[in-house]
């Protein structure tokens, strides 16, 4: 069937992980590793008579994110109660914000650019408290008991909702990666922490029914869940079966989405203004104060890399969106590495090698001095690019410096003309048929060069080898009449 347009929107919940305390009480916000139900107090448990009081730093962090996402910050925002009855909610309501019914969220509108310059619009940003964490005895489907850990209840969350501007699962993932880079750059949220960034997605095909997918645990899973859902909906459409408007759950073990509930039955949250928290006025001065303290953001960094170092758009985008990669790049340049060559190594082999080795870019074995040394070895003509790849891999694995590896393994490039002539002659003698073909066929010339490389274990200077092989062929052509 014909390709139908796909529209994907995301709803992301990010914990503000650098706060000392929860959103409305003094309980420590860093609950990871603590015994269950030890970070709780009458306020986050909603006991009668307790009063919530908003964490000022959480609002500052929210405003910083809103500025970074080009959103319009509300002058006067309000908190609302979202009521529902579920074991993860000790109060039976969540203090949240609401865009409607007279409610005003922290910010509305805005956008973020993903690679290629595409703009993904933001619909709204709001602050709310995290529910408790549920643990199931057995699996979620056939568990015999549900355990509640309230340590997470009341931790500050930022909810970011996009417009349905993404057209394929890869764009959704790119958006999330970019957003994570911005949050980390601002120092408000560490997306590496388990459960710190959670995502729901909605998707519709061909302008049809919108299906929501919940419970997606990682960015990789977002891409998988959306890809599955596209296939599922396409198959329904191909058989003329209507796609139901519903909420589906991503089962990351079976890697399928399963129906959770039909949209018609969606709960009524009975939103109403939180009577214990007065509306919060946000002054222009407050916003300006935060704006002035913002660090250089990924997009600004990308522009600077292009302007200051002449990087290609693609390299600048990839490096600037990743804080660890940016740091590595800038250290390499500071140590005298050529920015363009360094950037090519970073976005090319370094990223794929570290992935292959399961290494983080922050691993001490990924040191800037290795990259700089490698680039210098190639520049000075000491090693070929092919050998350099091998050296980089070995150096990441072993922590030996590239220079030491080259010395120990005798990998210096062979630029000795007399030596290379001998090798070429040997190759010609062993491949008489190929030599005759190479007189008319450039592909076979490359084959001969490949043979020289093989004999020298990749150490032959490629330019010099090409000249010698071509020269020898010319002489054969000139000497013997073409048959
Ligand atoms: Zn508390
Ligand atoms: Mn929410």
Task: Give a written overview of the molecule.
The structure is a single chain. With 483 residues, the chain is of the alpha+beta class. The protein folds into 3 domains: 6-289, no CATH class; 296-409, no CATH class; 417-477, Arc Repressor Mutant, subunit A, CATH 1.10.10. Helices cover 41% and strands 18% of the residues. The protein has 15 helices and 17 strands. Strands 1, 2, 6, 7, 8, 11, 12, 13, 14 and 15 form a 10-stranded mixed sheet that branches. Strand 13 (211-216), helix 3 and strand 14 (246-251) form a beta-alpha-beta unit. The longest helix is centred in the middle third of the chain and has 20 residues, at 219-238. The radius of gyration is 30 Å and the shape is elongated. The structure holds zinc ion and manganese (II) ion (MN).
Structure characteristics:
binds manganese (II) ion; binds zinc ion; 15 helices; 10-stranded mixed sheet; 3 domains; elongated; alpha+beta; 17 strands; 483 residues; Arc Repressor Mutant, subunit A
Point out poorly predicted stretches: none
Estimate nothing, just give the exact number of structural domains.
3
**Portion in helices:** 40-55%
Task: Compute the number of strand runs.
Answer: 17
Rg calculated over all Cα atoms: 30 Å
**Derived structural class:** alpha+beta
- List bound small molecules: zinc ion, manganese (II) ion
The separation of the N and C termini measures 55 Å
Major sheet summary line: 10 strands, mixed
Mean pLDDT: 91
Percentage of β-strand residues: 15-25%
The DSSP helix count reads 15
Net shape? elongated
